[in-house]
Each structure stands twice: as structure tokens, then as C-alpha cells.
Amino acid sequence: MYFTTPRVVEIRNCKLAVLQYVGILFGFVGLALLVWMQRLYQVSTGVAFAIDLKGYGAALNDFGLMDASDAVVTVMSEGDIFIQTNYYSVMNQTRTIGPGNNPVLETCHSDEMCPSGQQTRQGVKNGTCDRTSGFCFIHAWFPLENQTWSDKKLPSIQDWLISFRIKMFAPSFGLDQVQVIGLTVAQLLSGAGLTMSQVAKNGTFLAVSLNWECDVDYVTLADCSPQIVVQQGNDGSGYSFRSVHYATAAGVPVTDLTFATSRSVTRTFGVRIMTAARGVLFRFSWTALMLSVGSSLGILSATRIAADILISLMSKQVRLAKFERSLDGKYRPLSS
Questions:
Q1: More exposed terminus of the chain, fewer Cβ within 10 Å: N or C?
Q2: Phi-psi category of 316—alpha, beta or left, where left has phi over 0 and alpha has psi -120 to 50?
Q3: pTM of the predicted structure, to 2 decimals
């Protein structure tokens, strides 16, 4: 049984020497690029955010002035805001039976097509077909909404200002500051490839991403600005919500449906903006650099050993003899 270990030899071969030094050069350059591009000489930390959105503006319409207090909802959730662009109202609806108007769920030409108790989006069928209108009779609140559509678009909303107040925390880097960014509704829509005329009637949903990636070795934290990405958050179907007010027969407002005999419904359309933020800070670290250099030298050493083994396996000149180093410092072939 024998123990075998690699022996260092000098080989007078120009091709092998060039191959060796080219490999070392490429190894150093590659590792240097890896350290630089992957920021292995720096430490990083994430940033925590608290975002507050507010809207500012005013617009004139057919019945007078509307400002942000009338058309902006800011309490939906953190980093979330809604700006009204259009609405319609259906006043004094009462519970009764009448023909529906949904062309998909309520059309008929016989009573068999209106099974009693079957639900639709607006009410419940009572088992009878109104052959005059071609729709099933339903129990519902009448008049139905889309029978009284009268939209009221609000002009100049695209010029309103949306203020992003962003509180940023990164204790390990000593970061505790506030940034304020102001963008108009038109700028946000443009970022998503939209215009006000496209969304004024049915509204839309915008997802705004604020991304910070700051190298504090080159810029101060105060000068670090985010990359802003705006995308349409749905398939273009719009965005709206309803608000309902109930009243008794005497017109007294109530909240209990037991006593309500009428109601008024307002459907509000607009631009809903939801904001998400992420951030990473980088700075130079001697510890990170030394760890990267040490690991890189280790990789180079392993590469050198692998190259020597590869050369010894592939080169005929190396395979001709095995060498040993004698006491006079010269290499001689090993005796068998």
C-alpha cells in the first residue's frame, strides 16, 4: 500500500505555460467581476416603510365645486387612496315585483324559463314571464339601477396631486427619515399606459411600486430616489363601489332594514391607487471584502490544482516520466 501526493515540476513547454497564465488571468478577472457585480465587498440591509397617501385638488361640475374632501377617500388602508371620477344615483327604490332587465339571466318567452325562487344579480324570480318585455318578473328594489343610468363625470381630476409621504427605517444604517413624492393623476395613469378619457366613466385600479436600491458609498440617503413603476391592477374592467342610504315611509333615515321601506343607491367610480414599497441599502465593509477575497483565493487554488491534474492527464510530455527532487534541488526521473 502506498501514499501518493502531487509533486511540483517545472516543464519547459511554451504552450503549457501560456495556458497556465491565461487561466490564472481569466480566473482573477472573473472573480474580480463577480465580487464587483454581486457587491460582495458590501453589506446590505432592508428598509421598512410606512406610507401615507393624500389627494389635493378641486373641480367644477354641473352642481358646483367639489374638492378633495368630496371626491377623495384616504382611509381604505395604508398606502391606499381612491379618487372619484364618476358616479350615478338611483333614488327612492322600493321593494316590489317587476320585470327584470338582465339580458343574460332574466330573459324569457315562457313561465318555465322563470323558475320561482331562482336568484339573479338583482333579485329573485317569482315564476312568471312578462312576455311584453321578454323578461322574468323578479322580487327586487325598483327602479333597477341600469334602468336609470345617468353618469356624472368630474372634469379636471387628472390635474389633482397625489402626495406620497413615505417614512423609512433602517436602524443598522442609521436611517430614519421621511420622503415626500408628488405626482398628478395624469402622470400615474400615463405610467400605466392609460389616459383620463379611458378611465373617467368606469374607473380603474393602479398598483404603484416604489423601489429603492441605494449605494450609500456614492450618494447620501437624502439624495436616494426610488424607481417608480405603475401598472394597471386589473383587466380594465374598472373600479367602483356602492353606498346605500335607507329610509322609512315617512322619509326618516334608518340603518335597520326591518324598518326601511325605501333606499337610495349611489355607485361611485374612480381611480384606486395601492402602493407597495421595497428598499435595499448597500455600503462598503472591510469584513465583507476580506471574506470575498479569502474565498476567491481558495477558489483560485482549487482551480490551479484542477488545472495541474488536467494538464498531467492530457499532456504527453508530462506523462513521459515521474520526477523527484534531489538534495541538490534538481529534478530527476524516479527510479522504478
A1: N
A2: alpha
A3: 0.71
